[in-house]
Amino acid sequence: MAKLAHAQWSSKMGFVLAAAGSAVGLGNIWRFSYMTGESGGAAFVLVYLACVTLVGLPILVAEWMIGRRGQKNPINTMAELAASHGRSRAWASIGISGVLAAFLILSFYSVIGGWSLNYTLGSVIGTFSGQDADAVGALFSDLLGNPTTLLIWHTAFMVLVVGIVARGVTKGLEAASRILMPALVVLLLILVGYGVASGYFGEALTFMFSPDWGALDGGVVLAAMGQAFFTLSLGMGIMMAYGSYLGEDVNLISTARTVIILDTAIALLAGLAIFPIVFANGLSASEGPGLIFITLPLAFGNMAGGTILGLMFFLLLTFAALTSAISLLEPVVETLEERTSLSRIGATLVSAIAVWVLGVAALLSFNVWSEVLFFGLNIFDFLDTFTSKILLPLTGLGAIVFYAFCLDKEEARKELRLDIYDFTLWNLLAKYVAPLGVIVVFLTGLI
Ligand code: PHE
């Protein structure tokens, strides 16, 4: 296959921004904090940190490397690389399950992106000013109970995503994240400061970092691994697709390290911002998906300058959600475009409409369809659980196994710029620790 069949990132920075734009999103702030709260805190956080390092890093590097070699959409990349290495074309199924996962995730991601948009507006009009915990909680329950409002905001979010993808301005958005991502970090730091001032920071620290290992079970470990995949955008072919635009000059391991550190730091800051507010107001950490939408408005509604800070925060959160959502739509669109006769615009519209319809089912599960259950889970929980705990780990496992056992070792060593000694260590991680880790977690989590 001709290399460099399509364009490359203009610079390393452009690539880091795009990868970080995909990684940093609702997963870091909304999902990380609610999963941490729901899973009992520190044990979850520590397992998540271990998963990010021991499993996330090698899989991220493997996905990029495969993408850089394949230069195509994830399905064709896997099929062709497998064929050229004398392996079965069945490896393409990794690409297929990745694209499927991206499609499923975007459907509910857009619903939450809609919440973030709604809260941006709420901040502008001062809905949260001076409200107490009960009032803020009631506002959130009202939102969940109102399918029309949820539908409007879910639709608005999807329209934004499609508008950006169709107009091809994703690069501009990535450039903007150069300013907006640090701004998000600054706002999180302000919130952490607010948490320190609340007097409950110590409790939050204990909750997040002092584990009660007794509370650790297979379910928590699987949830933590799922979170690691979700937050790093792994197991979806997304990083693979990005890798296909990657120049030979980019050092994969150090770039992966940068992206992971940034992504993890933002998640931890979000936790340190949110849990003091939870404890200071006697709220429940295991509130579920509404956690940040109850705690943060409460803080913004009661702090000096809260209106403007709240507005900025939800705007930035929406922005981070948009850059991630675009990266979720991309593999679906790319696949449709390359495998059907649809044009770019046609493929974008068809994918977006399909995602939107599934998103409607997800948002109805918060109200009129709350009793519609799959395997005991409502539609929203089912989509989230099935993707993060099953599809992503299995796809990621496929990618790392393919890297470790099908690609040429010496070539990989040169590509990773490692000496023999470091490469042995790296291989230990990539060949044994990561795949076995995924398998063990997966099996214990399911039993
Ligand atoms: N990583 C993104 C986040 O944390 C979500 C995402 C998942 C984006 C998968 C792309 C692919 O919000």
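^ phenylalanine complex. The chain is about 75% helix and 0% strand. Strands lie at 373-374, 377-378.
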